[in-house]
Amino acid sequence: MVNESFCQTTIAAIATATAPSAVGLLRISGPEAIAIADVMTRGKASTALERRARLCRVYDANGNLIDETLLTVFRGPRSYTGEDVCEFAGHGGMLVMRCLLDRALACGATMAGPGEFTQQAFLHGKLDLTQAEGVMDLISAQTHYALRAAHEQREGTLGRQTEIARDELLECIAHIEAYIDFPEEDISPEVGQALQSKLRAIAQTLRHLLATADRGRILREGVRTVIYGAPNTGKSSLLNRLLGYERAIVSQIAGTTRDSIEESVNVGGILLRLTDTAGLRHATDDIIEQEGIRRSEKLRQQADLVLALFDATEEKPNQMPAPAHEHQRVLLLLNKIDCGEHESWQNRDVLRISCLSGSGMDDLERAIATLSLDHTMDDGHSLVAINARHQDCLRRALASIEQTLPSLQADEDLTLISIELRSAMHALGEIAGKIDSDDILGVIFSRFCIGK
Fold first, then answer.
1. Which of 35, 279, 300, 335 is the most buried (most CB within 10 A)?
2. Are residues 225 and 314 in the same domain?
3. Structural domain tally of the chain?
């Protein structure tokens, strides 16, 4: 439902980065967008051909030239926001763009808030809420997998799946409420079984979507990866090798790395949030090193992926690192293979690398990609990946459906069953924004950059 008071406002903002550049873009959207642009350009906006760039000069209130720009007019509803939109592509100087914005504001526009243009698009039905979130994911994507997932969400893949589930749930509710309206009619065993079967199928769809939550977090935030091992196994060298530059100090002195070093790197299309930890050893009197070791162990417990590093020239330890939780993956790495290999490592299933020569690093990147995300990433399957908000809605919907199944099977009060299923339908509606909630919109669009 369109918020009429919101849509009466004409907003303006600089839609490009606030830094010197070759070109900058000023965007104006709303019912007075063309009239405001007319004042700025001495009548060039209203006579401009739609969707055709027109060379225009923009003047201040005293008739002084601000900039020579290319003006493009998009008349609603055939625009990004669904309203009249005017875009000025001018020279990208920070002062020039600020003067253009100030002129638009002086002519009657209101400064746009974060995500307000996309919020207008949502309110005018140009995007559902999942597609609007996909826009933000598209802007913040740091790997090609994240980019692909953002495009799919921007195209409405997640919204369509949840809408199909919501429509099927509505059919179930309609059947149940028909029996409520005619209490003399009991639900026949065949109809009851059919309803239960449909509800189970809907529940399975929701479980499938919920299973993508970890994938979504990894695509958006990266894989929490810890480089873990004893002193002098080459942890800092591995960090430097993965980053492609000397980030950590490398030394033969045990305990050189005393605190955690964190960096992000794209490895095999996966964003790794890499942490180089202090070397693990039991005997140390250094209080600072002890604290570094304590932090290393804590980070290992929380990590998605542990790169457990060993020295190939040293004897294999009796106990190997095990996953700290069910979702954690541990990759065993044998470093310094160019210096020889201790006989105890023979026939052991470990990945052999050399941080000095770079040997085995391609195999390491492939192994990281395989462990971080499932095989469907590269075989053309959909990359639907829910975020925390979607996860909360899906969990509530699934809980309501699962609660009704035993009640429906036991032929209990249909009114209570209907209420529970309506709660599930309401939760699914929140995902695509079918349920009006200013609180939800405020949280989502506040994360956008101004101008988008």
1. 335
2. yes
3. 3
